[in-house]
Structures are given as structure tokens and as C-alpha cells.
Amino acid sequence: MTKQIIEVENLSYKYKDATDLALKNISFKVQENQWLSIIGHNGSGKSTLSRLLNGLLVPEENPDTKIVIDGLELNSENLWKIRDKIGIVFQNPDNQFVGTNVQDDVAFGLENRNVPRSEMIKRVDAALSAVGMQSYKNAEPQMLSGGQKQRVAIAGIIAIEPKIIILDESTSMLDPEGRNSILKLIRKLQQQKGMTVISITHNIEETLHSDDILVLDSGKKVAQGKPEKIFSNMEMIKKAGLGLPFIYELKQELSKNGVEIPSDVSTEEKMVEYLCQLNSKM
Ligand SMILES: Nc1ncnc2c1ncn2[C@@H]1O[C@H](COP(=O)(O)OP(=O)(O)OP(=O)(O)O)[C@@H](O)[C@H]1O
Ligand SMILES: [Mg+2]
User: Which residues have C-beta within 8 Å of that of residue 135, sequence separation ≥ 6?
Assistant: First the structure.
């Protein structure tokens, strides 16, 4: 049986001095061990939502609003227990650095959680190797490139092994190869450790492998569902100011030419397979 790990009900948020709400009455659920992608145009509220989930931002008091993380209601009493469960890799890696060198930085979260020193060294080394930054362990974080900073920020979170990991555009500065290898690493952790992943991304191709996609548009939730469902709704995607993954563009073009591709053909690999067997029948 799947367990619900995040439950959000009627969540709104307005920044001080802002005229409009950044989030408008959002409700959604996430099952444990799932990969949820959050997509939406610039300013649609994605980062705001991630900061509300771990109590970095606090919504106005409202009896209808509820945020429950792993069975705990988010309130001042449970705040630190909840922060222990969620690791966020922030959109701008510069906002994440606290240590004077890379390894201290990665160790920071472990120190806060009173992990014994010998265990800490092992976990820092393993996390830095996993993201390919072992040889930079004594470097100053400010000296790193944007992509290297993102790798270190990710190492800092995976060292903690939180139950929930939130990636806010965390691989945006990496090249496609680097991005793929980091995403593969996170997927492996998700599978091996039963982690739940929330990935906020502008890279629409990346969302194809998610279990679930949440679409935000100007602070409102406009859709949630499996990739096939989300990307079959062209009108909604267009209205939300988003593009389609290549495979769905291709489906559309083929459909215009009278070739209908079944809905379960939802990845590039499946498409290649399908087109090959179609070709062999002709
Ligand atoms: N600190 C702040 N003070 C006031 N308004 C803010 C603040 N941070 C964000 N906003 C506003 O809240 C809205 C949602 O912003 P948010 O950063 O959550 O969007 P986003 O979906 O993460 O965008 P992006 O894709 O550009 O990262 C925007 O209108 C933004 O201008
Ligand atoms: Mg953002």
C-alpha cells in the first residue's frame, strides 16, 4: 500500500508588500517514494511552494489551510522534525553555502543532526564522489562554477539522506550529460532509500520520467497527473505558457498526417520501438 507523505490543502501565500497572491488556494498530495515534477512559467509560484513545505515561509492563519508532512502537521511545534525530513536544494546555489570549504559545507547538515564524526567523514566523501566533486573537497565554494556549486549543494542534501528531497532547478547550470548523471543518481537514491522526490524544473523533457506532474499557472494549480495525461492536454499546456516534450510534438505532427500513436507510447525509446514495428508491417 502506498503512503501519503505530503498533503497540502487550501494553501495561499502573499508576500509582504505584494499586491497579488503568489499562491492561490493550492491543494495536492504526494505519495511516498514518488517522483513529482512541478512545472510552470517564471513567477508561477514554484519556489514559493517549496519554501512553504518546510516552513521557511509561513502562510497566513486560516482554519482551512493544512500542510501535513509524513503524518506531522506543519506548525511551530513540529517545525524542526519536519525540516529533518525535507532536504531542499535551492534555486540559487549561492544561497546554500555556509562552509569555508566544500567538505565543511557538505558536512554542515550532518553536524546539525549530530552524526558522529567518523560516520560524517564517510558520508561527506561518498556524497562528494557521487556528484563527481571529490577532488574539490578543500576548495572554497566561491571559487567554483555555477554547475560545480549545484553539484556541491546536491551533495550536501544527499549526505543527509532526507525522506523527501526538493530540487528547485538544481541542475539548471549543468550540461546535458552532467544533468543526466545527477538525475540518475537521485533516481537511484529514490529507489534504494525509498526517498520521495519533488523536482521543480523548466526542462520539460526531464519530467517525462516522473510519476506525477503538478502544473502551476500564476499561483494556481491548473493540473496534476501522469505525464501522458498532462501532455495530452495541449490547451492547458499552452495556456500555462509551457511547451511540449519532443515526443508529444512528434505525436501531434504524426497525427496531422494520419498516424495515431497509442497513449502508452510515452518515451523516446517506446516511440522508436513503435515506429520500427510499424515500419516493418508496411
Ligand atoms: N521575496 C519576495 N518578495 C515579494 N515577492 C516575491 C518574492 N519572491 C517571489 N515573489 C513573487 O511571487 C511570485 C512567485 O514567485 P516564485 O519565485 O515562487 O516563482 P517561480 O515559479 O519559482 O519562478 P521561477 O521559474 O522564475 O523560479 C512572483 O510573482 C514573484 O515575483
Ligand atoms: Mg523559482
Answer: none
